């Protein structure tokens, strides 16, 4: 393999590994927007909580890597369900107009509370681990840590299970029905309150899982959720708001673009490239590249 082919292979491999985690975050954000019409700006904080949960279960209680990651997912699922029942459910009962703006402000408030709550509880100290799974794998003279490979595999398996859940189970089909026509789903007997709580909890689970998976690469600290949140929004704007399936491809695409920009132009350029593409999308195709019919664009 010549140098150009080697470099291209490295870009593709690194981009796919990075994009898999972006996809996991973006699917959760897309889910809650597609079903509940909530632009969740606290999504990154559930990523942060997942990282903290995994850190404490792994280092203090000495659970194994898989157990720590799963417990972090369960923890963020429970917190998501509590948040929906105590905050979004009452708002839904009282707020019939300006729902998107009201939930935007609410999630922004949740984000600030969670960031400062984590700071009060655990301080600004970075809390991370050296590795979940020791060692590296050499692929065409390119070394990749076992943690990155395992993280990508866990993300892809989770997305596959989630896809099967949405398409093959009664509850999953109910979620899809609500995303397409909430009134019609309610008429045929779907319990909207259950679906809304489950949807928000699942979205938080996916974010928490991503934070737990990346603990050895990105240590837990109170403000760590900002960048993953931005990346998730990049993906959603790219593919179309609420388009859950396309979020997978969008995450991989953003990962590839950022890796290419970083390797070709240097540090910092990955965000420039992402933002430039998002601006072009908003100007020329504001509903996104794979927008679903009837879904509003970001600018609407």
TrEMBL record:
Annotated TM spans: 20-39, 99-118, 149-166, 200-221, 233-256, 268-284
Keyword Calcium: no
GO terms of molecular function: transmembrane transporter activity
One of the protein's GO biological processes: amino acid transport
Membrane-topology descriptor: Multi-pass membrane protein
Name this protein carries in UniProt: Branched-chain amino acid transport system permease protein
Compartmental location: Cell membrane
Chief subcellular location: membrane
Keyword Repeat: no
Matches recorded under CDD domains: TM_PBP1_LivH_like (cd06582)
A Pfam family this chain is assigned to: BPD_transp_2
Keywords of the record: Amino-acid transport, Cell membrane, Membrane, Transmembrane, Transmembrane helix, Transport
Family: Belongs to the binding-protein-dependent transport system permease family. LivHM subfamily.
